[in-house]
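Field: sequence (string)
Field: structure_tokens (string)

Example rows 1 and 2, in order.
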Amino acid sequence: MGPLIQHICLVTFFIFFACSSAPDTNTNLDLPHNEARSHEVDVVLDGKTAHSQLKISHNGKVVEWVTQKGEPQTEIDKNDIDKHFDEDPYVLGSMGRAMRAYWEVCVKENKDWVLGVTSATANRKGQLVLSPDNGFWVVRISNGENLKTFMGDDVLNERIPHRVGIYVDYQERKVTFYNAEDNSLIYSFTNGPSYEDDVRPLFSPWKYEKQPITILSIST
């Protein structure tokens, strides 16, 4: 065996050894739903951010659209005017500042809804483009079908859930959605927020939807 062949063999051996002994750094694997649920946090709707036609329950766990024109359901204090969504029917939630957070929402009777998280500094005025570039990580459903993200027209290949689990992992920079009934994955954003982004839960039963959406306790 000549010197060149010996050198190639030696280099190949060291490359193989280094690769085979390196620790697994794959962070793209989605956390199993049961493990995500162990990071449950208490989420309460923040009426100071709600669109004026959204009605928030006294316990801050239920939101619904009310159609009476001229009769706002949420009083808008002049000192909070910049906090409200003024055109699209959204409301934010409040939660603690944990590195990992999980909550569940019941959307069983709803044909239209939007769920996810948004940066606390994201725009709340006018018609919104709900993309990660604009500080929104959400999924939506329209007319009881076509579960999608706002990043394209691709329909997510999952059956329509009645309970949705949302999991935020700042360390992995991921926002993951689960079907909380069968523990299956709906979608995972891998370009999620960092801890410095200070995201907040986002909810919408959408306009003219008669059924409320409800934040659940896992024990419910």
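Row 2 begins here:
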Amino acid sequence: METDQPKTLDENAENKPQENKRLMEKSSPSEPSPILKKAEVTKPQKKPPVSDPEAVKIQAWWRGTLVRRTLLHTALRVWIIQAWWRVKLTQLQESRRRAALENFTRKEWAAVRLQSWVRMWRIRRRYCRLLSAARIIQAYWRCHSCTSRGFIKGYYRVTANQLHLELEILLGSGPCIVTECIPLPIKQ
């Protein structure tokens, strides 16, 4: 089962003991084989594998391909993780921005509402003071008008056959009181 592929030193070393045995069987016992003499004199040392330069090139190309493939897969995974992290970071920043904006809006509305209540309270208090002042002025003016123009107050009382009237007329000079009893005509 021989192939045309070059053998490395390890393969040659595996085949040499078999060759050595064959050579020993063929040779006579009185003459030691040249291979045995050489093997006895020199101790077997492990030498680096000697192989064909084309095989070395192919192996180097294949190892390079595997390394490049591994690096490509690693770079793609890194790129995917970075893209995912950028999206997550953007979402996190957006949620923080939205929370800060909602908090700011809530505080602003609370301040605006508080200011409007204070303004309403101040205006209402001022309005009530002005209304009270207007009522006081109106009361004094009405009293002044009554005393300067004259004022008539009257009371009446009806009994079975009479009407009792009492009128009080106030003018600028003094009060004038008129009292009168008027008989009522009764049909019988």
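free_text_note (row 2): The helical segments are 9-26, 34-41, 53-149.
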